[in-house]
UniProtKB/TrEMBL annotation:
The keyword Amino-acid biosynthesis does not apply. This is Heat shock protein Hsp20. InterPro entries: A-crystallin/Hsp20_dom, HSP20-like_chaperone, Small_HSP. Belongs to the small heat shock protein (HSP20) family. It comes from Natrinema versiforme JCM 10478. CDD domains: ACD_sHsps-like. The keyword Phosphoprotein does not apply. Residues 41-154 form the SHSP domain. It comes from the Archaea. Keywords: Stress response.
Length: 154
């Protein structure tokens, strides 16, 4: 019977290898989350998709806002933080009384996103437009100030 293999031989080695793989995956995931969280300052889970692109002389933010009108959206720029929110009101005039509905999935929706921009932008030249349910915000980068200034010492 001494020649018979033991069923648990090698389990410790397998568990150590599995543990190392999980630690490697967790470190990779933390790095990805940290990089994203440096820009995304939203407090809750984002239901509205957002893209931020660097197009050389400007940043372009694209946000899916299907069903929102221009008046439903609010944009604010404070320093390097862009805040975008939307509130869509449900109207009784579309579809009649509540008791007429057999199924009703469309409802009042709102969203709020905050995004830290990687560089300062020219807040006077920011432009935004909505086309086919897509909000596009163009944020021209601020020109670097090459002018040297003298600083007085007290």
């Amino acid at each position: 019977m001494a020649d018979r293999p033991r069923p648990f031989d090698g389990i410790d080695e397998l568990l150590d290898r599995l543990n190392r793989q999980i630690e490697t995956a967790a470190k990779s995931w933390e790095t990805q989350v940290d990089q994203r969280s440096q820009l995304d300052l939203s407090m809750s889970g984002a239901e509205t998709s957002l893209d931020l692109a660097d197009e050389g002389d400007e940043f372009v933010v694209t946000i899916d806002v299907p069903g929102y009108e221009n008046d439903d959206l609010e944009l604010r720029l404070s320093g390097q933080t862009l805040a975008v929110s939307g509130q869509r009101e449900h109207s009784q005039e579309f579809g009649g009384d509540e008791e007429n509905y057999i199924r009703r999935e469309r409802e009042t929706k709102s969203f709020s996103r905050q995004l830290r921009l990687p560089e300062p932008v020219d807040d006077d030249a920011v432009k935004a437009s909505v086309n086919n349910g897509i909000l596009t915000i163009r944020l021209p980068k601020r020109e670097p100030d090459d002018e040297a200034r003298s600083i007085d010492i007290d």
